[in-house]
Design goal:
5-stranded mixed β-sheet; binds magnesium ion; 16 strands; alpha/beta; 11 helices; globular; binds adenosine-5'-diphosphate
Amino acid sequence: MFNWMRQRLCPDLAIDLGTANTLVIVQGEGIVLNEPSVVALQKGTRRVMGRGAAVGKLAKQMLGRTPENITAVRPLKDGVITDFELCEAMLRYFIEKASRHVRGLRPRVVIAVPGGITPVEKRAVFNSAERAGAGRVYLIEESRAAGIGAGLPISEPIASMVCDIGGGTSDVAILSLGEIVVSESVRVAGDEFDEAIVEYMKQHFSLKIGTQTAEQIKLRLGSAYPLEQELTSEVRGLDTISGVPRKAVVTSEEVREGLKPTLEAIVGCAKTVIERCKPELVADIVDTGIVLTGGGALLRGIDRLFHEQLGIPVRVADEPLNTVARGAAICLEHLSEWQDRFDTGERAA
Ligand code: ADP
Ligand code: MG
């Protein structure tokens, strides 16, 4: 009864604090916020621009387009918190925006954080969430949330494997009995795909483009495996020799070639995890396979590449961009049973 009333009065929050996107789920309402993890700042002042207006979507549009006096920053770019103060400002903005309608009680908040963050960074996330109005804060590793969100039987004595390909990092983990048995993280993911495209266009087309344009190309025609119908797209950029704007036509084969080394690094990370795993668990994985989550899992043909390289079954999670948030939301529902699986601050100090 108490729980029911509490939920009505003050719904709890689940947050996926990603390097590229932050998602917030309000218990009982689903995803209420889904925005880029970007903050725009006035240079020199450290003031977050025009309060509210320049965090998230708007701030992302500013990346690479800012005038002299403004900078747009991603506080978690490589999976580590590069700027604590900004991370706090951003988290605070998102929590306040998501819980606008919640007054009085302080919501409990489950936050999925990148696997590699340090105790100091964890502390910063706790403090930021508390200052932003959270009651009790529970941290959970992204990989675990991804496994739960993808519907894997992670609590059972059988190995489950997930590979989350986000913006800044790719995180691979094998879970069993509710614990992470082996995990590995590389700072190679969606951002690196974009940078590889920038580099490719420079090398092979003498065309200078920005990372946002590169991301558009990736979404439009990026792939990890030959496509049944290869695609082409027009790209605008700056000719690196003449220095004037120019168009070029790029094909999906070319983009794939540009992405190859980056993809190899991610597959390599998964191979390392399998190698480091106990034989019994490897035997499970041969049957149960690997689930891909995160935005990178949407790259065309990435499942086929993983299958070819690892020789195990591969599945892309449903709505891979939301998997971690969904997993965190499931954790909210089981807070009391799963208490000991969360980091609640005491141990993170
Ligand atoms: P994070 O958890 O680090 O915030 P996300 O899981 O939100 O990252 O994934 C963001 C990344 O996914 C970005 O690099 C984005 O370009 C990429 N992405 C999103 N959609 C697609 C798609 N359809 N194909 C390829 N990459 C995609
Ligand atoms: Mg993520």
